[in-house]
Each structure stands twice: as C-alpha cells, then as structure tokens.
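We read letters as residues; the integers encode the fold. Take this protein.
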Amino acid sequence: MSSGTTTGADGVPVPVGMRILRAPLEGKTWRGFGYLMLGLPLSVVWFSLAITGISLGAGLLVTFLGVPVLAGLLAMCRGIGRFERTRARALLDLEVADPEPVRAAKPGVFPWIGAMLRSGSAWRHVVYAVFHFPWSVFAFNVALVFWSVGWALVTYPLWFWVFPVFTDQPGLQLFQNGDYTYQVDGPFRIAGTFLLGLAFTLVTPWLVRALTAVDALLVKGLLGPSRLTGRVIELESDRGVVVDTAAADLRRIERDLHDGAQARLVALAMDLGLAKEKLTEDPQAAARMVDEAHGEVKIALQELRDLARGIHPAVLTDRGLDAALSAIASRCTVPVHVTVDLPTRPAEAIEGIAYFTVSELLQNISKHSGARTASVEVWRSADRLLVQVTDDGRGGAAASAGGGLAGLGERLDAVDGVLIVRSPAGGGTTVTAELPWRDRTATAARR
C-alpha cells in the first residue's frame, strides 16, 4: 500500500486526501459527535447521583444505615455502567463485555450487601460516574466549539446576505475597537472565512475521534471486566480447548488401534490358529500361513511404531527438535530445509507442541499447497520460541473457523501461544507460531 492511500471500512484502499475530505460527512463522525453531546447531560446526572449516594452513605455509616445505602449506590452505578456500555456500542461501535456478576455466598439481603461492597467492578463504576463528569465537560465544549464554528464559517457564503437585508450591517461583525470595526463583507473576506471554516470542519472529525477514543478507554477500563477476570475467562476457555484436544487425541488413538493394529492382530491370531490345525495334516500349507502371519506381524509392528510416533516420537525425546523435525521433513512430499537455532532445549511440553505444529503444517504443504520447496526455521527470541514454516505454493490459506489452522491456533492459544498466517493468493504461505519459552531444567526442577 502506498503512503498516499489508506484502507477504508470495506478494505478498499482510499486516497488520504479523499478520506480527509469525506470525514466530516461520515456517519462515524456524526455518531461520535452525538456521543460527546449526550455525554455531558448524562454525566451531570451520573455525577449528581454518585456524589449524593457517597455523601449520604458515608454520613449514615455511624448508624449502620450507610452500609445498605452504599450497596444500593454500587448497584445503581452498575446499572449506569450497563447503560453506558450500550451507548458506546450503539454510537462508537465499541464492544465491551459485561463485568463479572456479583455473587453472594448464600441467599439473603446481608450476603448480597457484603458481596456488593467487596465487588471491585462495582467500585470502578462509581469511579466512572464521578470522574467522567469533568472529562465530559471538557470534551463537550471542545467538540461543540470546533463543530459549530467550523460549520458556521464554511456555510457563511450561503447566509451572509442576512446582515445587509435585515440589519444595518454589511456583514458579520467580529470585533470593534473604538472607531474601527471589522466585519466580514466583500468577496475576499467571505472567501477567507470559508477557507477558515473549511480548515475547522476538516480538523473537527479527527478531534472528535480523539475525544471519543479517551471515552472508549474509560469505558473499557472502568466499566468492563477486570484484567484478572478476563484472564480467568481466557484460562477457562483454554482449559476447555485442552480437554477437547486431549479427548480428540484419545479417540484418534482408540480408532487407530481398533481399525489398524488390533484388527490386524486378531486376524493374525486366527491365521496362526488355522496354521496350528494344519501343522500335522499339511505342513507346507501351515508353513505358508506362518510365513504370511510373519509378514502381518511386521506390518502390525510398523503401525504400532507409527502410532507411538504420533503420540510422542522417541527421536524428539532422545535428540531434540533438530533431529525430530529433520525426520518429519524427510517424509514430506516436497524438499524441506530445516534450520534449528536454539541455545538449549525448551520444556518438554513446549517442544512437543512445536514438533506437532510443524508436523501438521508440513502435512498441509504435502496435501494442499502445490509447493516445490519449503523451509522450517526454529529460533529463540527473548522469552519466546518462534517456529516459521514457509512454502512457495499457491497460497490462499486462511485460519477459517473449523479448519485445521484454526484448530492449531486454538492449541497454541491454550499455552499463551500465537499463530500468524500470511498467505496471499499465488504468493506462497508463511505460518509463524510463537510459543512461550520455558527452560527444560527449570521445569524439571519444579517436578
């Protein structure tokens, strides 16, 4: 993308000059201005209710009546937060999750009051109701002045005739100093006023967006879930992904054993039983059957080795990522160059995830890419283990929902990893996996 273009909402490149000229008329600008204009009267109400509730509750604490008053204030401010999140969603397209609910240890009024008073999110809502008021006063006045002055001046050529027709002045009077009066009349002054108004009008949308960006930070920081709660939710989701992945792996192993080695061993037992019966009657036939059974044993052993390699390859445990990745690269249908630059071996869990990530990506290259060559690079950067798999195939890969890359991304996310896919159509594919670095020695010491 060139420096003179930017991307619009629909993903189509838009010249920067066109974007600047179009900004005053965009719905986003008008919704942001409406948000700021509504913010002041609403914040006056929220501020008044919050200050009244805090003063009344604090004053009544000596009689214990202040405790339920403060709990009611907190509940009211949570309702204010719900309204403000809805307003931000409607006017700013800002999605903010609801904070964690207030749960009492047991039913009843007093447990609910105690839970409300201990709720950090409820107190953050009180902080928002109090401190949003001075900010909204500033944002309201700045936005209103720039907006009104800009549109008034830019449209002045359309209504300047009002002064000579209905008053005794030739134009808008800006100031008077003694006998000198400056009035906006004449074509040059009118044109200058238009240009000044145009400058105000073109600057105002970006000013409005900057002001609403501060509002967005306040809503996210004070009215949304806390970082700790978000982290707990993320960990619960990751735990679900790990459990689902483990269950899927167990089902795959069971299916492979049942349909592969187990079925082959059952058939082998039956063949050996028949050979035993024929041993005295037809030794040559029995010998042929034993020979066939010997071949089946070899195949069954190979299937069991492949299955064990799929669970956790021995070469990874014994020799590390370099040898293990070279082994799976040799089985890929295209030539693969492997480079592993690690000062030490990472923890077993991280090493295993890196191995299976590369294994799945190389399988995708073999099946779908149409590539001629591929490469695998593994290195450490600060506290991250980076794995990058590149091919020169047809590209167009995407981590769509339900796809293999999406599932791989979920597995990485379960250990605070990240999967980045860059695959332009016809330009090859580069997949980068970032994993947290954990030293093998430190992990072994914790055990």
Q: What stands out?
A: The two ends are 51 Å apart (CA to CA). DSSP finds 15 helices and nine strands in the chain. The chain has three domains: 25-223, 229-311, 319-446. Residues 293 and 348 are 38 Å apart (CA to CA).
